[in-house]
Amino acid sequence: MSREDDALLHLEGAREADKRGDFIAARMEYLKCVESWKQAGNVEELAKATAEYETFVQRDPMFEALLSKLLLPIIQGHPGILQSDIVKRTESKDWSELYSYNRPIAKEDIYYALYFAEKFGRIKRTKKGRSYELWAAD
Fold first, then answer.
1. pLDDT of residue 107
2. Is there a contact between 113 and 63 (Cβ–Cβ < 8 Å)?
3. Which of 106, 77, 93, 45 is nearest to 114 (CA)?
4. Whole-prediction pTM value?
5. Which of 136, 56, 137, 62 has the alpha carbon at shortest distance from 106?
6. Are 7 and 36 spatial neighbours (Cβ–Cβ below 8 Å)?
7. What are the φ and ψ backbone dihedral angles of 133, each rounded to 5 degrees?
8. What angle in degrees, to the nearest 10, is found between the helix axes of 43-59 and 23-40?
9. Cys-Cys crosslink for 30: which of 14, 49, 119, 124, Cβ 3.0 to 4.6 Å?
10. Among 18, 5, 13, which residue's Cα sits nearest to residue 45?
11. Distances (CA, A) of 44 to 5, 11, 29, 37, 116
12. Average pLDDT for consecutive 10-residue bins of the chain (138 residues)?
C-alpha cells in the first residue's frame, strides 16, 4: 500500500469515527492521515488534511474538556509550569471525571490538548530543556 493510499484510508477512518462520535478513534486516524501525507511528501494534500484535522479538534469535546476543566486551571495557577510536570500531575486522573470515557487520561491526550491549545492561541509554550514552559494566553 502506498503512503497516499494509507493517508486516504486513515482519512476515511477518521471521518467514519467522527460520525459515530468516537473522538479518540477519529483523533488517531486524523493523526495517522497527516503523518502519511507528510511521509508521502504531498504538500497540497497535507495542507488539506491538516486543515480538516484542526477543524475536528476545534469541535472535539474531549479537547475542550481537557483544556478547560483540567489543563488551563493548572496553567493559570502555576504560570510557567513545565509540560512534563503537568503530565505527572494528571497521571492519576480518569476520563470519567471530564467526559464519558472510562479510561485513564494518557500523556498523549495531554500532549494533544497542549499542542492544539498553543496552535489556537489559548496558551503559550516556550521550549525549556526537554520540555516546555506553559503560560495562559493574554
1. 85
2. yes
3. 106
4. 0.87
5. 62
6. yes
7. -85, 140
8. 160
9. 14
10. 5
11. 15, 15, 19, 9, 21
12. 94 98 94 97 97 97 90 96 90 60 78 96 95 93
d(CA 78, CA 138): 15
Pull the grid cell for residue 46.
497535507
- Residue whose C-alpha is closest to residue 105's, from 92, 88, 86, 118: 92
**Grid coordinates given for 108:** 498523549
From edge to edge, which strands make up the β-sheet containing 123-128?
81-82, 131-136, 123-128
Q: In one letter, which amino acid is 108?
A: E
pLDDT at 109: 87
Cell 468516537 belongs to residue: 22
